[in-house]
Amino acid sequence: MRIGILGTGAMATALGGAWVRAGHEVLVGGRDEAAARQVAASIGASGGGGPAEAARFGQAVLVAVPAEAALSLVAPLAGELAGRTLLDCTVPMAPGVHGPALTTAAGDSVARRLAAVAPDARVAKVFGICHESIWTMPRPGFEGAPLGVPYCADGPETGAVVAGLVASMGCTPVDCGGLDRAGLLEAAAVFAVGVWWSGGEARHVFPSPALAPGAQDDVE
Do residues 69 and 94 lie in contact, with contact meaning Cβ atoms separated by under 8 Å? Predict the structure, then answer.
C-alpha cells in the first residue's frame, strides 16, 4: 500500500518506520519539508515533501499532528484526500487538575470533525491508544499474543483497509464500530495516559473475564 503521512513527530516516525518494515511505500509530508525529508531518510521511506504531496501519494493517509492542529491541516487538503482512507491517530487532551483531560465533548471526536472537513475521504480512528514507542517494535506482541489494535471506521470498505494494514504489521485488528464511536477510543487513550501518569499500569485494569476462575467463558 502507498501511505502518506501528515506530520514529522514521534508518532509519524514510529508508524512510518513500522510500515516501511511491513513492505509499504511511505511518503512523509510536513509543513517543514526539510524535516519531512529528514524523517523519511531516517526510516527508509520513499521520500519527503509537503502535506499536499503526501495526501496525493497515499492510498491511506495518516494524520499524525497534535489534535488541535489536525483540522487546519486537513481542511485545505480535502480535494487531494477524496477517495483516500484517512487514518486519525490524534489524542485530544490537555492538562487537567487530576491528570490529562479529554478536550472533546461527549459524542464528538476529532475523527468526526475530520470527516466533516474532508467529506469525500474515508475516515478511521486508529493507532492512538498506544504510545509511539510500541510501534518501534518489529512485531508488537505481549504475553504471547499479537498486539490488538482497536479502530472505528466510517464503513466496511474503510474498515477492511484498516484491518489489512494492521494485520500487515503483525497485529490483530479489533473492530470497535462506526465513526460515531470514535470518541470512545479518544477517551480510552486519555484514560490510559492518565493511568500511566499516575504510575499505574493500564493493562492491569482490563483483564479478560475468561481469566477468572469459574468464568462462564471457561465452560461453554
Answer: no
